[in-house]
């Protein structure tokens, strides 16, 4: 998916990108490739692959969720800024917070947001476990996203404490796993969440499946969650 195909595909979804937004995606691509030579940000560096598997893939959240364009969103472990930075380009009024445990990725994201001229983007070098216990961030976000490879019961403990009541935790998965979802349901319930639905989509051109798991925050998360750094991964909630 080259840039013009990307633009046409979004237009078919009733999203018309401006020339400025297209220029921002172009700069994003070039900065990603440039910085990737210095640090491991992504294994995907070919232009058509970046536009399909990073940019378009990230925007599926907005396409399928009818996001409030003025919402507060937190992206946990966003790596090179996915899905939050493409969403911010699409919806400039979003308030975006990104937390990542690797300082070098935060350095890249700071340079990226500066170069793209994005405002109201807040970057934090922190573990999700300690970030979620900070009263300044706990239960403050309309949406919390994770596009990570960790299992859902682990992601739920890292993300749900940050979601405000009636907000949503959105987990993006490349593969469908009913077993993983069933395994995570007790953790989701203990953390105050409720599984709402799974939205299945296919990427254009490649046909690769993507799965968006929608979990709503129904109750305040017990204070003990998230537990100390490392524990959610070593001893997931059963």
Commentary on this structure:
With 238 residues, this protein is of the alpha/beta class. It has one domain: 3-Layer(aba) Sandwich (Rossmann fold). Helices cover 41% and strands 22% of the residues. The chain has 9 helices and 7 strands, in the order αααβαβαβαβαβαββα. A 7-stranded mixed beta sheet has the order 3-2-1-4-5-7-6, sandwiched between helices. α7 links the parallel β4 and β5. The protein is globular and about 45 Å long. The mean pLDDT is 95. It is an enzyme of class 2 (transferase). This is Ribosomal RNA small subunit methyltransferase G. Keywords: Cytoplasm, Methyltransferase, rRNA processing, S-adenosyl-L-methionine, Transferase. One of its GO terms (cellular component) is cytosol. It is found in: Cytoplasm.
Task: Give start-end ranges of low-pLDDT stretches.
Answer: none
| Total number of helices | 9
Strand segment tally: 7
Estimated radius of gyration: 17 Å
Report strand order across the widest sheet.
3-2-1-4-5-7-6
- Shape, per Cα inertia axes: globular
The CATH fourth-level homologous superfamily: Vaccinia Virus protein VP39
Residue fraction in strands: 15-25%
Average pLDDT taken over every residue: 95
Count of domain modules: 1
Q: Profile the largest sheet.
A: 7 strands, mixed
CATH architecture: 3-Layer(aba) Sandwich
Distance between the termini: 41 Å
CATH class assignment: Alpha Beta
GO molecular function: rRNA (guanine-N7-)-methyltransferase activity
InterPro entries: rRNA_ssu_MeTfrase_G, SAM-dependent_MTases_sf
Function: Specifically methylates the N7 position of a guanine in 16S rRNA.
Organism: Enterococcus asini ATCC 700915
């Amino acid at each position: 998916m080259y840039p013009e195909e990307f633009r046409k595909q979004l237009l078919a979804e009733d999203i018309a990108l401006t020339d400025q937004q297209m220029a921002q995606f172009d700069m994003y691509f070039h900065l990603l490739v440039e910085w990737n030579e210095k640090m491991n940000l992504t294994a995907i560096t070919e232009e058509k692959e970046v536009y399909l598997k990073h940019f378009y893939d990230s925007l599926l959240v907005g396409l399928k969720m009818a996001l409030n364009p003025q919402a507060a969103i937190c992206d946990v472990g966003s790596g090179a800024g996915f899905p939050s930075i493409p969403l911010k380009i699409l919806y400039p009024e979003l308030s975006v917070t990104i937390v990542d445990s690797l300082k070098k990725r935060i350095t890249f994201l700071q340079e990226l947001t500066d170069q793209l001229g994005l405002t109201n983007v807040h970057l934090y070098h922190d573990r999700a476990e300690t970030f979620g216990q900070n009263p300044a961030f706990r239960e403050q976000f309309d949406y919390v996203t994770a596009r990570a490879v960790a299992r859902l019961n682990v992601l739920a403990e890292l993300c749900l404490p940050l979601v405000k009541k009636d907000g949503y935790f959105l987990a993006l998965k490349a593969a469908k796993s009913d077993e993983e979802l069933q395994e995570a349901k007790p953790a989701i319930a203990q953390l105050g969440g409720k599984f709402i639905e799974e939205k299945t989509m296919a990427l254009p051109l490649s046909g690769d499946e993507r799965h968006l798991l929608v979990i709503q925050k129904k109750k305040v998360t017990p204070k003990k969650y998230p537990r100390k750094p490392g524990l959610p991964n070593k001893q997931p909630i059963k």
